[in-house]
Structure formats: structure tokens, C-alpha cells
């Protein structure tokens, strides 16, 4: 498991150090945080100074000569250096084992496993604490994949941007020759320096540079998927950096640009004109006494500070610079300035370093890093190999150290190599517009052919089920004939039983009684009483069914013989091809020969009867619309929304269901007949009477809520009629939203917007994985938006917009790779 450990240290060795330890999985918030204290320990700083003095007296470093008086033999110096290193290691371990700090150490031992890969950040601004060899802490002996890095207490995440157009351009060697005056870095070739790395002609160095002077070719011609490395080979007086060049030259999947003893102008040119993944420096360098700044010796006569190249380094970071490797001496001051600029990772030597140690570290680190190991594990493995130099350079494995920006994640070599090659914004815009056009047109075409209809309807059903439950409609009551009632009274229900139920309801003065039971002819005893109710009870509405031409089994069902036409409603509904009822049929024109001679559905007839008692009558509006007080009913057409070539005969709207389980109060037929129903449940309400028993009934239908039950459950027809009447009344009296399908031009904009978002995601994402994750995240956001709009009464095209978004994202990704 990958773990991140952060040890924040405040104050210094003189006052004592306040310590805060955080532990958590890599990439997540810390799960453990604990505080402790390290007591004052000035002896550590004194002992470090003594060790440093003896160590630096060994000489032969990649540092400008320093004046040190040597009064002992080298053998004695080596022995003394080892002895001081051991003493310093013992002191550090004793300090870290002090009582006020022990609980932090114990927490580490509990939270970490030997198999964990651990990044251990020491977060402090004190230069003495930053110089200490924290690798000496014996706790790390049990964690072979743990490595320490230094970090500043203040940091920020640097956004990666695309390279701006630079006024400087690349050109051929002949174009730039006046800048170099016949040689490299401003010195004539005829005057070679006295250095192990000698100067020579361009032809002599051509095998090393593999194509020229580090970028004379146009940026667009660089091969994709290469790690871009800017290698600055500075002043090499009295040191040998040829081995560094060979190691970099042999790297796989790398494009290395060498600058040999360049001048400041040349370095600025490369930082400003090109994108770099890794910055490498070999040569002389040092840090000042404060440990907060340093300088590079870039040639025989010039040295540069980070501050002098500040803008160029900032631009490099913004363009994607991930790692700086300073294979030179005393780099903590330079690394501290790099931290202020936001460079994600810097590898430096904390003290002067000799050629052999520098070369060995680079060799072992690059071999491990390029083979697939993480940055931290690679540094640890390379440090451990430096123990081979112990006989010549004591404590050589103390020297390399990572300086980490905590806001960044260390990349692997493969991640650097697989990044997409940058390209200009004009090209991005062209790709983006092309992806939008192809995706939007393709999705619109597929939708017009009906290829997306089933997916859109299923998505509609899912969003309907996800809506919050609404309160029941207190204006309605269902008298249902359950299975128990059918066993008691028989099926079909006798006329006398129905007549008695109507009479029992009538005495409590309901506003409307909607009988959702076909009664084309007498059934059982009591027909005379039922016929009298049909004739005299003006609140009673009956039922019939129209016939459909071309369907022999749908020849219609006659209304009750004694029922007037103005109190008659048809039961017919319109189900979609998958058998699910999503639409509400309000009116239709019957055929002249049809026995069911009514234009009103039962639900509409019942609702209008109820609203008429409150003085509300329908009015005809422009565009075939109907107004009912607060509501405007607009019919859907043949190619509307998800529907293509829809049978739009009659006046249809979308059915805005209430939650099926709670939308209406229910009583059984037996309870009504036995007088067990409260009059308050009946007075001034719409009463629906129907059969809900699970018998063989063609009047049951699947709804968007059927998929909530396993196996799928149908809704009885009487409940559907009640749902429909509730929709009409709630819209007219309460302003409850009717489901509207947005106009075609708005649907087109919605689909186009989805394609634009997908294209933009692909264009701005530097990696395909990021693009895919962002597209998935936005698809989730789009689902949430469509769900919210559906609650407000608007059905917008979810599936087409998601398909357009993903399609445009995929097209843009493919075009970027071409």
C-alpha cells in the first residue's frame, strides 16, 4: 500500500521543535494526526558542523575551491569523518527517541507496514533541520520502500498551461552563429579550456547531441511520447562530467538537449521557447550560508542564481516541468529557491560531492527510475548503492535528497513518456469544433431514426423513480375491490353490489363518483337499482371503451344503457412500444359508428366535473392548447423529444405520476358496504371505484415505477385513471408542474452543449485518463441537472446529450493523437 507521511517541524534545535505527524493513504486526506515535541539539542548542530568541516576537507568536489587547511593525513581524515558520522547518527536517534516524541514514533510503527511504499516528507523551513541526515533514523531500516524528502511549510499548486507564443524563434545553426561567435557559450573554439571535458568541433560532438544544439529543429517536429530533458553542462573545471552525458544520452524514450557551458542568453532561450519535463545540471554549484539561495557556474566566467532566471523557470513549471536534478555540489540553497517557484520535485546533493559519487548516483537512479520504479524508491535504491563508496567518501549515502512540493505527485518515467505532445491552441480549436460538429450531427441523426428512443425512455423512467415522493392527493379516494372482496361478492361484481356502493357514497355527498367498471349489460341481480343511479345521480360517471380499426380483438365496450353521454368517459390509454404507460390521453374523436360516443377520457371527465363545481371551466388557447385556471395543456406531436413517428391521435400529454404507493387514500369495497368508512373521507372528494385484485385483467399496465418491483408489477387501470385525474386537478388548482418536452431548437442546443463540453474536456486534459474521468464526472452532473429539471416539469434530452458529450470527447482525443 502507498502511504504519505508528513512530519512538520516548527522552531529549531535551540528552542526545541514542535512536531506534527500526519499519516494517510497516498492521494487522500490524512487519517492520523498527532503532535509531539523534540527537546533542544544544540549538540546535534555542533556535531554536524564538525562532521561537515572534516568532510569538506577531503576535497575533489564539484564545488568551487574552498580554503581549508589540512593538517592530517587522508587516512586520518577519513577515520575522523566516519567517527563523527557515527556520533551524529547516534545523537539523532537518541533525540528522536526522547519521551515527548516517542508517541509519534510509536504511531509510525503501528500505522506503517514493512511492505508499504512510503513518501516521508520533512516539512520545515529551518536550515539546520533541513541539513540533517534524517536517513540515520533507525526506524527506516524496517521499511525498505520508504524515502525521505524535504518540503517547505508554505507551498502552492502550479497550474499547467500551454506554451504561449514566444517572440524568440528557433532556427538553423547558421542563423544563430552570430550569437555564439564561433563557439559554445561565447568562447571561441580556437581557445579550448583546460578541462577533462574538452571542447572540439561540432562534428566531434555530434554523436553526443544526436541532432544538434538542443532544439534548432522546429518544436512540431519532435517525436511524441518522449521525455524532454534540458541538460545544462556548466563549468567543468577540474571535474569530469562526460559520464553524466553518456548516461543521459542512453535514456529510453528521451529527447535530451545539451547546453555545454552556455551563456545566460542561451539558457533563457531554451526555457522560454520549449517545454521541458526534466531539468538537469552538472558542473560546479554552491549555496550560501543561510541555505536559502545558491548559484550555478554555467561557464568559465559566469555564474547564475535562480533569481536571475526566475521568469524562465516559472514558465517552464507552468508548461509542465516536473523534475530538476542538480548533480552538483551543495544544492540545498538552490532547491529552496526552486521550491518557492513551485518546481514539483528537485533532487540535489546536500553537501559537496565528488565525481564518482555523483556519477554513481545518477547511474543507479536513472536505471531504477527508467525501469518503472517510483521516483522515491529509485532515489532510495541509488542512495543505498552509494554505500559502496564508503571507503573513499564516508556517509556518501547521506548526500542525495529530494525536495518536494507537497501539492504535486511524483511522476513515473512512463507517465512522463506517455504524456500527449503539446500543440497550438488554433489546432486545438479546430479539433474541438470538428468533434462538436461530428458528434452533434451524428447524435441528431441517430435520434431522428429512433435509435436512441428506447434508451431515452428508460432514462426517463429512472429519473422518474429517483424523484422525491410527493404527499398524497387529499381530494381523491379509491374504493377498491380487492381479492378478498372478489371472493366475497364474486366476479364480475353484481349490479346490486355496485348500486349499494354508489348509494352508500352518495349519502355523504361526494363531489364526483367515477365508476371504473364496465357495465354494458346487466350482471347479476340489482340492475334496476344501478340503472336508477346512472339516471338520477348527477355525480356518477360511467365507463366505455372505443374500438380500433384493424384490431378485431379491440371492438370496443358499450357504455351502461341508462347513462347520459355527458357523464361518460372512455378508458382507453396509449402505451409505448415497450408496454409502459408514459402518456396521458385526455381527448379523442370517436368514429361515427362507435358505441363509445364520447370525446373525454374518464380521468378528464371526472376532473372537469370536479373543477366545474368550483367554477373552473376549460378554455381553448392558441396552438391547440387548453387552459384550466393555473394550467396550460399542450399536446405532444409525432416527433417530439424522445418520440419519433409517434401515433399522436387525440390530445396527449406526458403523465406526471405521483408516487404510486402513497398518492391516494384507499378503502376496500367491504369496508364501504359495511359502513366502516369515515364520512370525512368521502365528502367533496372524487371517488374512484374499481377492481385492484390480481385477476386476469387487461386493464393493468406497466408504468415507469414497475421496474422498482421484482418481478415487474403492473398498475391497475383504476389507479391509472386516478393518477391522471390527480394530475389535471393538481395542475389547475395547485400549479403542480405538467411534464413539458422542450422545443426542438432547445433540444438541439442541449445536444450541442453536451458535445461542446465533451470536446472541451478532451482539449484541456493533458492525459486520456483524466479526460475519461472528467467526462464520466460531467455525465453524472448532467444526470443531476436533468433530474432537477424533471422535478420542475421539463423533460430534456439526457441520453443524446451524454452520447454527444462522450462522442465529442472521444473524437477529440483521437484527433489529438493523429
Short description:
With 818 residues, this protein is an alpha/beta fold.
What does the model show?
- With 818 residues, the chain is α/β, with parallel strands linked by helices.
- The protein contains 24 helices and 27 strands.
- An eleven-stranded mixed β-sheet has the order 3-2-1-4-5-14-13-12-8-6-7, with helices on both faces. Strands 18-17-16-25-15-24 form a six-stranded parallel β-sheet.
- The longest helix is centred in the middle third of the chain and has 24 residues, at 425-448.
List keywords for this structure.
24 helices, alpha/beta, 11-stranded mixed β-sheet, 818 residues, single chain, 6-stranded parallel β-sheet
Low-confidence spans: pLDDT under 50, at least 5 residues? 65-70, 162-224
User: Order of strands in the sheet with the most strands?
Assistant: 3-2-1-4-5-14-13-12-8-6-7
Q: Report the end-to-end length measured between terminal Cα atoms.
A: 37 Å
Number of helical stretches of at least 4 residues: 24
Number of strands: 27
Average pLDDT, rounded to a whole number, is 86
Q: Give Rg in angstroms.
A: 41 Å
Strand content: 15-25%
User: What level of helicity do the residues show?
Assistant: 25-40%
Structural class: alpha/beta
User: In this structure, how is the largest beta sheet organized?
Assistant: 11 strands, mixed
What's the shape?
elongated
Produce the secondary structure layout:
Elements (H helix, E strand, L loop, with lengths): L1 E11 L3 E10 L6 E7 L3 H15 L17 H23 L2 H13 L5 E7 L3 H5 L14 E6 L21 H8 L21 H8 L17 E7 L8 H8 L4 E7 L3 H10 L4 E5 L1 E4 L6 E4 L5 E3 L4 H9 L4 E5 L4 H10 L3 E5 L5 H16 L4 H11 L14 E5 L8 H5 L7 H24 L4 H14 L9 E6 L1 H7 L5 H12 L5 E4 L11 H10 L3 E5 L23 E3 L12 E5 L14 H11 L6 E3 L3 E4 L2 E3 L17 E4 L10 E4 H5 L12 E6 L25 H18 L5 E2 L2 H21 L3 H24 L2 E2 L2 H20 L1
Parallel strand pairs: 1-4, 4-5, 5-14, 6-7, 6-8, 8-12, 12-13, 15-24, 15-25, 16-17, 16-25, 17-18, 26-27
Antiparallel strand pairs: 1-2, 2-3, 9-10, 10-11, 13-14, 19-23, 20-21, 21-22
